[in-house]
Design a protein that fits this description.
The chain is mostly helical. It has 2 domains: 61 residues; 35 residues, no CATH class. Helix content is 73%, strand content 0%. Helix 1 packs across helix 2.
Length: 104
């Protein structure tokens, strides 16, 4: 049940984000572009969404942190021996102040 609620919540969040970003692109375009360029027209919501998708395709935006970099580090982890993994985990815990008593 929690999984379904979480999935529905994420879907609603994505829809709200798309609507807000589309409205933001439309508002900024209609505010800035006609004032800067003579003869430029205002755009509606669907054109703003199209512009948003086009910018995503051209510039590769909307990425979270990580992406391909996380997979690169995962490959490094997979290539480690169990001893190297333990040494890495030990060094990470010491660097970040974790002790075995802290873990529950």
């Amino acid at each position: 049940m929690r999984f379904r609620i979480r999935c529905v919540g994420k879907a609603v969040l994505v829809v709200v984000a798309v609507v807000v970003l589309g409205w933001l692109v439309m508002s900024l375009w209609n505010w800035v572009v006609p004032a800067l360029f003579t003869g430029a027209k205002t755009i509606d919501f669907l054109h703003a969404l199209g512009l948003l998708v086009l910018s995503r395709i051209l510039f590769g935006g909307f990425k979270g942190h990580g992406g391909w970099r996380e997979r690169r580090y995962w490959r490094r982890w997979e290539a480690m021996t169990p001893e190297e993994r333990e040494q890495f985990q030990q060094a990470w815990r010491e660097r970040h102040g974790w002790r075995k008593e802290d873990r529950s």
